[in-house]
Amino acid sequence: MTDHAIATRGLVKRYGQQEAVNGLSMRVPAGAVYGFLGRNGAGKSTTIKLLMGLARPDSGSASVLGLDCATQTVDILRRVAFVGENKTLYGELTPEEMVRFTRSFYPRWSESAAEACARRLEVPMRQRFKTLSKGNRAKVWLLLALGQAADLLVLDEPTAGLDPVNQDTLLQLLAEGDGAGTSTVFFSSHDLAEVERICDWVGIVDAGRMLLEARLDDIREHYRLVIAEGRDLPMERAAPVESATRGGSFSRYLVARDADGFAARLRSLGASVTEVTPLSLRDVFLELVRKEDPCTSGNAGATPAAPSLAS
Amino acid sequence: MYLWKCWRDTRSAFLGFVAGLLAVGIFSVYVQFDPLGWIAAKPESSRLLWHVVSDALGASLRELIPIAGFILGAMGVGVEFERGTADFLLTRPRSRRSFLWTSWCLGAAQILTLVLLALAITWLTPPDSPAARPGLFSLVPLAMCTVALLTYSLTYLMTTLARNSRNGIGLSLAAITGYSGLHVWLKFWHGIAIPHFWELIDHFDRVDAGVWFGSTLGWLAVCLTLMGVTQFRFERAEV
């Protein structure tokens, strides 16, 4: 058993000139509920396609449950349940027939988990798929994934199209582990509230690169926004600084740990620290991905002459 | 269960062809034997017209079977991309080649069934005399199957390449038209004869049986090559 349910290193996927995934490295711990966050076009769905064998990387490597994505796709698919971004299934089949079709692929199929999911999500089992609403279509995908009793659940925006009641039920199902023994859940989402509710790990991706990968508890307990005023302050992204942004004479730092120590070091450089604030996941997300200022995260060396604050 | 899903996808088209063949068969048998004496009661010119129509329909059956190849070929795995179901199907734990060949084999079996049905109808309703009946175990069914499998495999490939059934049929028709044009151009302008699969069913009575059998095997090899290319493309297709 590997320590990581998913591990990628330097994953790159190009579509023409555009790099959808740009050297993405990620580690999803086994047993975690991992929220994969990013803006539209950040590379979330492409990454998931690479993991599921629906696309091939241009370079880099990826493994799922210790199996190589490039060469052991079928072995991976035996142990992974997937809900795609595009919630389309066979229009002429009913959810009941879809269940019969899908379970034939999975010897470990859990009838009880599928039935529980169908009941709790109120899936209309005898209606043709083409006549179902967008929300009900998403529910059928979820039902088919949760019935697989998979070791890993990969969900690409699973709650998209669901009403608040069904969103809530789905999150409960995932949190309770009603996926019939599913041990790891990896899901992409735009909804930070739902991620905060059930995830214990988050990865924030932008422009195809991983900006932050951390335990949610660590973010809540240790991550701080430090705002300082001063000239020639360092703008490097090196631990504990996750991102550094400058606007006028103010510099904003997203600090992963020991914010007070970091603030003290800034003061020793002559800065006036105006704020050390705890952050929610939403704040961290916005600090990392917003693009108004040219000196954003990853822009290491914006002021190469400035002294380093890395600890 | 995937076979069942393929059957669900293609059964309407297949049963439509079966119904069409049966309708032609029933019509031809009725005209041939006239059990209620309706046709015999008609004037001579009208009787002749009924027989001409019946004979024409019976004789054109073997040319009509390849059409089934176009339709069934456009319902292969390539349409999963068009319907947006490829990400579902291709994340099931089976190799892509198994999906491809299962679906292809079902279509091939359906084509074989249609060929045998068409042959049975032709055999029951010979246009001139019982001597004109094609033997049920002769090379005729093999040639009919081969031609239908060619249109089927070609359309299957084109649908997979185009990821769209209509475009697949269009490209397949364009390829056949282009090849036929080349065949005619080489034959009449340069005196070069290149094989054309239509000769298998059009001129089967004028060609030496050995040559004909060899030609049939050759075209079957072309079918399998087309499917080899399809497999190559499908296994590398990204969603």
How would you sum up this structure, described in words?
The complex is a heterodimer of chains A (311) and B (239). Chain A is elongated, with a radius of gyration of 22 Å. Chain A is α/β, with parallel strands linked by helices. Chain A has two domains: 212 residues, Rossmann fold, CATH 3.40.50; 67 residues. The C terminus of chain A is likely disordered. Chain B has one domain. Chain B contains nine helices and no strands.
Task: Supply the key terms.
heterodimer, A: 311 residues, Rossmann fold, six-stranded mixed beta sheet, four-stranded antiparallel beta sheet, disordered C terminus, B: mainly alpha
User: Which value, in Å, is the CA radius of gyration of chain B?
Assistant: 20 Å
Annotation, overall tally of beta strands of chain B = 0
Oligomer description: heterodimer
One letter per element, helices H and strands E, the order of chain B comes to HHHHHHHHH
Number of strands of chain A: 14
Tell me what the CATH architecture of the largest domain in chain A is: 3-Layer(aba) Sandwich
SSE layout and pairings?
The complex is a heterodimer of chains A (311) and B (239).
Chain A: E1 4-15, E2 18-29, E3 33-38, H1 44-51, E4 59-64, E5 67-68, H2 73-79, E6 80-83, H3 95-103, H4 111-121, H5 134-146, E7 152-156, H6 164-176, E8 184-189, H7 192-198, E9 201-206, E10 209-215, H8 216-222, E11 224-229, E12 241-247, E13 250-255, H9 259-268, E14 272-278, H10 281-289
Parallel strand pairs in A: 3-8, 3-9, 6-7, 7-8
Antiparallel strand pairs in A: 1-2, 1-4, 4-5, 9-10, 11-13, 11-14, 12-13
Chain B: H1 2-33, H2 44-73, H3 79-83, H4 86-89, H5 96-124, H6 139-162, H7 165-190, H8 199-202, H9 209-236
Helix pairs in contact in B: 1-2, 1-5, 2-5, 2-6, 5-6, 5-9, 6-7, 6-9
